[in-house]
Each structure stands twice: as C-alpha cells, then as structure tokens.
Amino acid sequence: MEDKYSILGRCFGHSSFRGGQEALIDGILAGRDVLGVMPTGGGKSICYQLPALLLPGLTVVISPLISLMKDQVAALEEAGIPAAFVNSSMTSEEFRTACGAVRSGECQILYVAPERLENEGFVAMVGSREVSLIAVDEAHCVSQWGQDFRPSYLRIAGFAASLPRRPVVAAFTATATQRVQEDILRQLALREPLRVITGFDRPNLCFEVLHPKKKLPTLLSLMEQRRGKSGIIYCATRAKVDQVAQALKEAGFPAARYHAGLEDEERRRSQEDFQYDRCPVMVATNAFGMGIDKSNVSFVIHYNMPKDLESYYQEAGRAGRDGEPADCILLFSPGDIYTAKFLISHGREQGEGGPEEASRQEQELRRLEVMIGYCKSVSCLRGYLLKYFGQPHPESCGNCGVCRSERREEDITIPAQMILSCVKRVERRLGYYVGPALILRVLRGSRSQRIVSLGLDQLTTYGLMKDKDRRLVQQYLDCLTDKGYLFIEEEHGTLRPTASADGVLFRGERVQMLTRGASRAGVAEEAPEAAGEERERPRRMSGSGRERGPARRLTPAGQASGGTAALPQEGETLIDALRRKRTQLAQEGQVPAYVIFSNATLADMAHRVPHNLEEFLQVSGVGEVKAGKYGSQFLTVIAEWEMAERKRRLGR
Ligand code: ADP
Ligand code: MG
Ligand code: ZN
User: Which of 91, 120, 282, 463 pairs with 554 at a CA distance of 20 to 30 A?
Assistant: First the structure.
C-alpha cells in the first residue's frame, strides 16, 4: 500500500512537503474538513490531489475556470493520475467519455466548474459513485467580500449535503483576510475544520514600485531587460490592454492579450499561447490569471495600480511559483487613483444603489487607500504587505525596491521656497495660475518667446534654478505636490499653492525629499524624455488624474497671437486678447473699460475658457444681461484665439 510520501515522490516528483501541505493532507485523510490558506504558488493543488489518490472514492474538484481544467487534467494524466473534467466547452463525445470514466471508477479526480452543480443529471451521475472528497479551489469565490465572487459557489454546501454520504470538504484560497476566511467557513458549511494558514511571504519575489513620468518607455525598458522571459503585464482596463499589447508588438515584444471583451476563441488562444510559452508575455486585465498554473512566470508588471492589496498580492504572486527569483513591479501614477475610483463607483453593472451598495463602495475605497499607501511607501514593501496580512516581518527584507535602493532624505527647503514663490509671483504678474511646465521653464530661465512676451523674465524668481537639471526641478515640483504644498487644479491643469505653502515661505517650515538610488528593476525613476526640454504644452501631470481622454486644454497662460484690434497676435495670451476686445468695446461704447468687465472677470474668463453662453455665464462677474450683450463677442475672441493657437502649434 502506497503512502503519502511515496505518492509525493512518484506522482508529483517532489522530495518533501512544503509548509502546510502535510498537515492539510493528514487532516483530509483523517476525514476532517480543512481550510488551507496559502499564498499563490504555495502548492495548494497537491493538498487535494494527493489525498485523492489515497481515498477510496471520487474526488470532485470545484475550480472556477473552465479554460484551465483541461491543462490541469492533462498535467495529472501526464503524471499518470487518472483524472477528467466536465464542462460546457466539450463535445458530447468527450462528455460521454468523461462520464463513463467517472461511473466506472477509473477516474479518481473530477474537475468541474461550480455551475455544473446546478445540473441535475450531473449531480445524479456523481451520486452514483462514492464521493470521498470535495475540494474547493479558489474558495474565496464563495465570498461576496472577495474580489471574484461567483454565486454558483454558494451551491457547494448544498451539493455536499445532498450526497448519500457527506464527503470531506476541503477549501483552499490564497486570500488572507479574516473576513473572507470566515465567509468561506460559513458559506461552505465546513464542519469543525482544520485551519492551516501558512506564512504569506514569498521570499523569492522582489517587490518594487516605480513612479515613471511616462509608463510606456519605462515598460519597454523593463521588457528589454527581460527579453525571452515569461511575464504578465496587468492593466486596469480593456482599452489599456489593447494599447499596451499593440505598443509591445510594435517594439518587437510578442505579447498575447486577454480581457473579457475578447471573443472566447481569442481568449482561449491567448491563454494557450502563454501557457505553452509560444508567447512568453501576456497583457491582461485582472480577468486573467485566477488559477493560472504556469510556474515559470518570472515577472509580473502592473501597468496600473489595482484596486486593493489582496488583488495585487494575488496577481503579483503569479510570478516565481517555481521558487526562482522573480520581479513584481508596479508602475504607479496618480492617474491610477482616479481610474480606480472610477472603477469602484461605476464598477458594478447592476448597482442596486441601496445602502448595501454604498457600504460596499465605502469599503472598497478604504481598501484602495491601503493600496495607495503601498505605492507611496518609503519603508520596506514586503513589510507593508505582510503587515497587512497580519504576519510578523522584519524591518527590512533586503529584497524589495525600497530595501535595495539607497535612500536618503534631502533637505529641499531652499528650492521649495524658490518654487513656491515663483508660482505666486507668476500669478501676481499674470492674474492667473499657469501649468507646471511653464513654472519649470521660468525657474530654469528659459528664453522662450512666450516667457519673454509675458514678461516672466522680469520676475525675481526667473532663472533661480538655471544650474539645476530639468528632471531634478521636476522632482522638486512633484515632491511639493505629493506633500500638499502645491496642487494641480483639475480642469486646466494649473499649478497652485495650498495654504500650507505659507509655512515654508514665511514660517520656517522645512521640506524633506526622499531620493532613491538605483533600483533592482534597473530603470531610472524617470524615463528619458523624448522631446527636448522646451515643451510647449503643459506636461500631463500628477493630480490631473486622467489616464486617458482628450489632451488637456492649454492653460490660459498658453501663448496667443493677434493682429491689431481684432486679430490675435503672435505670442499673445488669451487674457491679452480678451483685454483688447474690452478696450475696443469700451471705445465704441464710450465707457470705461471696467464697466464692461473687471480685470477679475477677464482673468476668470481666461481661466475658464468658456465655449458657449452657458459656460460664459459661469464666469465670475458675468450676469445674464452682460452675457447677452457681450457674450457672443467674447466667445468669438476665445474661439479665434484657440484656432490661432492650434495653427501655431501645428505649424511647428
Ligand atoms: P497554488 O495552487 O497554491 O498557487 P500550485 O499547487 O499550483 O500552487 O503549486 C505551485 C508550484 O509549486 C507547482 O509548480 C508545484 O509543482 C510546486 N510544488 C507544489 N508542492 C511542492 C513541493 N512539495 N515541493 C516542490 N514543489 C512543489
Ligand atoms: Mg492553485
Ligand atoms: Zn524590503
């Protein structure tokens, strides 16, 4: 009679058990229900596959993904273990063969999707044999609090109870949260289960968060360093998946893609190409990967930040299952926060809108905060993860982006004062705030026509950072934004000081910036800029929030142009154009200019850039009468200014 050790070696080719495996296997063999919580790649499958070979009756494995069953069964058969699956994708011929094997007792392990339990014929067929074990893989799918809730999982308990003799029920998940675990115990009606929760650490995974200004070049250089290796790139949306996959292809990295918007056929093919290494790289939404059985994935890159840390750990954990060193890299940008919030508030198709839905959203927002905290963590990333999963951890792991980089705190109070005062002075000069790109150029003493024509070269803060690298100044700007001394106003992307800026300017508050040295991922924090340093358009900035969508409109500080009275002049700002219109109207109507519109009103107009009467009415100082009287004339000036601006830009 074979025992567990000989089966482990003979059938699975392993010399010893990993943490948790033996206890779970012993529990099952002793007839106890079990809950096994192990990280992805921890080796959960063996915990039910091995007992299946020692138990007298059939083992039914409930697994959420039809697409994987075939491979899992093939792998078992490869190992000489009689297994079968039934699912909706098979031909009636295949179905009959599988059922025959089950009935005859030839098949020891049967894989099914939970939906199958709704089929009476199937239940009857299974009931014709003694069922020794029901193994519930990815058991967190039974919980509404998990990320992959599958209503059919709720039927499992009833199915187990309906069998002539209730089999052992064994549940497995990588989800560590207490709430989900409690849900699993309850929803699956486990009886006095043995709970085995192994450590969550995956020492071979190197965690890293990068904050690239531009993700795509960063991704490409990461890919370049990993040519020929297998990896997964997760994106937040289907559109992003398509876009990134396309860009990779154009850059010579063959990549498969996977998301719920693709035809079944393409999804199946993609998954297969990846699984079989015909295509080493997969670009996918989180629809891809549950139960993925590929052990040689050597990197998982998140192109966007996931919604919560559980999802992140599970997805990232698909790297390095073979125990080899692997990288889990997250490319963070503040825009990801916006996307995640959007997905949370619009994510559920049939949002009931009730109090339950509201509390769920609240919960999801809380989990998002934890995720954001990870992205911004300046202490050990592994420590952050393990702490969240309630596991003790050392202060520094030595194998994450933070621990591997040389960090130092730098006092940047002086440059911070220069920047904050520059922002204020530009505003005082122009009467409105401008985008970060222009501030950066003023600080670095750019001689561009725009700066000269706006008179910004006359400011005392002009050229204060002439000798500083553009990227460094940009880093200062980002740091001040991150720390809340500056913020980017959403609509026009202008950079504004917050109330706390005064603390630095007038009350001696000091500013520290954490600088990072080289990281293991081997990419500079900032990807090299394609264009030269003189960028005309404000750079899409942190805080603007939008990952996609139309290019941001130029700030009112954008250059303008204009002829004499009515025609825009080269280099003219919108506010200048508006002022000229006001002068003209004042002359025609023989009234003082301020009677038409005050300076504040023009400034607000230049800031809001209204395109129709309704928007025009929003401008402070514009009532209905004035809107009716002057609206169309000012709107025309704005339209002409914008057109000239567009032409000028195209003409470059
Ligand atoms: P999980 O389902 O927990 O994510 P798997 O069951 O797919 O993990 O196992 C992950 C990898 O670990 C597989 O490649 C498997 O062969 C390997 N593995 C499992 N148990 C052992 C063991 N005791 N010794 C060595 N490798 C193992
Ligand atoms: Mg598994
Ligand atoms: Zn660390």
Answer: 463
